[in-house]
Design a protein that fits this description.
alpha/beta; Metallo-beta-lactamase, Chain A; 2 domains; six-stranded mixed β-sheet; five-stranded mixed β-sheet; 9 helices
Length: 252
């Protein structure tokens, strides 16, 4: 029996008893107001257990949280490193310089990274791939993407050799491709269609230009492209450049 029902019955019994004893009984004067106050308090009190409907709403909120896309620009000094996360999947785009590798690993751990599902090198300059070796040594990496430039430096060669040694799937990306993420997130490659030659900086201009899409949100990740590629992108598909967030090319 509920407490409120019990108290109501007790109150009724006391009133009846008071009628038998005397109209001005001390029992009525002393206990009836107290019982009425307790009944009112119990009727308005918040139940300790969450009702089914409220619990369902909580579960819906958790489900919505799983659908959040998080994009974090990691503070690793001079260079780029951007972490994209959704539903437990981690995409790391560039890794900053080698001198900041320890800082990068700390930032990744602070963001609860335990593995890298996609590791993307926009281009092979040191301030974009310098931390790659440290990332490969610390975390399991499922897939590596690259712009496919024949860039002959020890740092880049070591990066490629380690990928081969650990037999990590590797793919060169070109404009027009789409990197599979999940049913809600798209990662489209806008450039380069083919490698540039003869520009003031071919390595920079051959950076991967990526468009991250989620629902009605879009972000452009432009590596270190320069004016030549910017002009080409505007002329070939300016609509693809419409976005809420721009990672400014070549550090601004």
């Amino acid at each position: 029996m509920k407490k409120t029902s019990f108290l109501a019955i007790l109150l009724a019994a006391l009133v009846l008893a008071a009628g038998v004893v005397t109209k001005d009984s001390e029992l009525v004067k002393s206990y009836v107001p107290v019982l009425l106050e307790q009944l009112q308090a119990m009727d308005t009190a918040v139940p300790k257990e969450m009702p089914p409907k409220a619990e369902a709403k909580t579960q819906d909120a958790v489900k919505t949280a799983d659908d959040i896309l998080a994009v974090t620009a990691l503070d690793i000094g001079q260079g780029d490193s951007i972490l994209v996360q959704m539903q437990g999947k981690n995409i790391l785009i560039d890794s900053g310089d080698r001198s900041e590798a320890a800082r990068l690993l700390t930032k990744l751990e602070e963001n609860h990274v335990e593995q890298i599902d996609m590791l993307i090198a926009t281009h092979p300059h040191a301030d974009h791939i310098g931390g790659m070796k440290a990332v490969l040594n610390r975390f399991p990496v499922k897939q590596v993407y690259d712009s496919g430039q024949n860039y002959k430096t020890k740092m880049y060669n070591d990066f490629r050799l380690q990928i081969e040694k650990e037999q990590i799937p590797f793919e060169v990306l070109r404009g027009g491709q789409e990197v599979p993420v999940n049913e809600m997130v798209k990662l489209k490659v806008l450039s380069p269609q083919a490698l540039y030659k003869g520009t003031p900086s071919d390595t920079n201009n051959n950076s991967l230009v990526l468009r991250l899409e989620y629902k009605d949100f879009a972000m452009l990740l432009t590596g270190d492209i320069q004016a030549e590629v910017e002009r080409d992108l505007l002329q070939t598909d300016s609509e693809a450049l419409q976005a809420q967030v721009l990672k400014v090319a070549h550090h601004g």
